[in-house]
Amino acid sequence: MKKWASWMAAGVLTLGLAACGETAKPTPETPKEETSKMTLGEVFNKTMEVSKETKSLSAAMDMKQKMTYSQEDKSMTTSMKMDMDVTMEPIAVYQKGTMTVAGDGAEQMEPMPVESYMTEQGFYMKEPEGGQWMKLPKEMYDQIMKMSQQQAKPEEQLKQLEQFKDDFKFEQTADSYVLKLDASGEKFNKLIESQMSQMMQGAEAEEAQASLKEMMDAMKIEKVNYTIYVDKKTFETTKMDINMDMAMDIEGNEMKTSQVMNVVYKDYNKVEPIKVPDDVMKNAQEVPMPEME
What is the mean predicted confidence (pLDDT) over 117-144? Predict the structure, then answer.
């Protein structure tokens, strides 16, 4: 779950384009009078400007993930629905939603509530069963906030995705530019490794880097499909669909993961400052940092 959260956070707000002279191919239902002549490079530059100026936004995420273990012939399915508010300066995140887990031969659990605050006041998470608020250790907060700062700056993600400039398909509808990326293989592995390496900088960096290398050596990205929608008038990212299939060898037992994630963005620059409620800070139970094995 923690590894998935890292990959998800690294992908949220990602927007990949390359500066070139290609214009967007209209879909069949696009009215002629709504057809834009802007090139992919021009859209790229405008989107970068908007990304840099964005102060806050909200997002609704719907994710389904299935993990299958080949030798054991078992699988586990996770579904998550999450609403998020994000502010950039200072970086802060509030999220609330539900998560459901089901496995072979097991009764599907009831949706489990998920709620958390990540602000300069600390990282607070609500315990799903008892409802007790917990304050996570400063070391964990520092690492997660560093990750959030990275993913909250789309221009940084653009630089990382520039290597895929020849792989993008550029389309348009009446009100959106549609950016499609189909990627797989070693070069996408390297992108994920780069993003995760940035997230793991800081405390216990050497152990984290060793764990990262071990995980990446065992991982194979089989398929990645991005579909990103950009509003023609505002150049804000309005929606992102991500399909990813990957395989990982875990001590000779292959684990296959299939993930479908849909994110809708809204309320650009309309989110109020995010603060942890006083009663949450007062009553939260502090949780110690888990020991590294």
Answer: 86
